[in-house]
Amino acid sequence: MKITMQYGNGGRETNQLIKDLFLKYFGNRVLNRLEDAAIVRVKNEIAMTTDSFVVDPLIFNGGDIGALCVCGTANDLTMVGAKPKYLTIGFIISQNLEFDKLEEICKSIAERAEEARVKIVAGDTKVIDGDGGLYINTSGIGFVQKRTSIAGAKDGDVVIVSGNLGDHHAAILSARMGIDNNIKSDVAPLIGMVKRLWHENVEIHALRDITRGGLGGILNEIAVASNCEIVLNEASIPVSDDVRGLCSTLGLDPLYMGNEGKMALIVPSYEAARALEIMREHEYGKNAFVVGLISEGKGVVVRTKVGGNRILPQMSGDGLPRIC
Asked: What does the radius of gyration of the chain's CA atoms come to, in whole angstroms?
């Protein structure tokens, strides 16, 4: 069965889609009211974010657009020190999308929302002409726990990454190009690992998820915001052999490749060992490493394995094939 334009007519078919599919996976006390807006209880400071997801293919090794939309939005809230609480999801569905594929994506959304401990409290559905594609827009609200900012890095701090870089970007490119390998997307919610750092009162100076633009992109943003230089040790940067091999074949740099379940954590040097221990105890941080230092200056520099230095600038133009 395929989605047709009738599913977007606001009538019987639309209600059938909402009740038989969306409420089946996302239903809760707030959403089940099917009001024009959700009424939720909030307190103290809240964080808000929004994002749109246009990945192709919709389903790939290690994840799908549904996992992306939940984890991406929840992680954005987490990175500013907020505990994700509520999500809205808007589906823009091209007709001829297989109903079974949409259901698989909805199931993935429900599973990731449960893992991230967020509720989907409102949504929207539009059906447009097309050939079976799907776009998703999300908004998220979280309760601020320990506010962080990319402007907080200080001289003498260290940079920790939570695991291997480039997995998500490499998985999408492999799927598009028909390359058979074992690379899986790293899409995952990071709130569980960050909560452990909060619970242990680790002093966090800056926090950022390593998404589009890769580690190079987000560290350049931190360097500008914090008015500092970041020096990376190339030998310490974790990249899997499979991703390194793909990058070598395609001429790509893993430092600019997107991830969907990795973060960069900047802490004082005296907190590094404790932060690493906490992160490595979590499923999504078991390959965490200290990869760099914060110092006075500007920009991002990589100390290469052969002992030289190279500037790692903000990527410009189409330096890598776009995945979203």
From this structure: 20
> In one letter, which amino acid is 237?
I
d(CA 33, CA 40): 12
CA–CA separation, 265 and 257 (whole Å): 18
Note the pLDDT tens digit of each residue in 39-70. 888 878 999 999 999 999 999 999 999 999 99
Which domains, ranges and CATH numbers included, belong to the chain?
A: 5-144 (3.30.1330.10), 157-311 (3.90.650.10)
**What pLDDT, in 10s, does the model give residues 69-78?**
999 999 999 9
Q: What does DSSP assign to residue 2? A: B
Alpha-carbon gap, residue 137 to 52, rounded angstroms: 4
What's the residue count for the chain?
Answer: 324
- 204, 80 in Cβ contact below 8 A? no
| Cβ-count burial 163-188 (b if 16+ within 10 Å, e if not) | bbbbbbbbbbbbbeeeeeeebbbbbb
Sheet arrangement for strand 229-233: 206-209, 263-268, 157-161, 289-295, 229-233, 299-303, 309-311
Cα–Cα distances (Å) from 285 to 162, 165, 222, 275, 277, in that order, read 5, 12, 21, 10, 9
**Inter-residue contact 155 to 292 (CB < 8 Å):** no
- Report the alpha-carbon distance of residue 171 to residue 185 in Å, rounded: 5
Would you call the peptide bond into 57 cis, given omega within 30 degrees of 0 as the criterion?
Answer: yes
Q: Where are the beta strands (DSSP E) in the chain?
A: 46-53, 59-60, 63-64, 82-94, 119-128, 134-144, 157-161, 206-209, 229-233, 263-268, 289-295, 299-303, 309-311
CA dihedral 108, 196, 266, 287 (to 10 degrees): -60
Amino acid making up residue 89: I
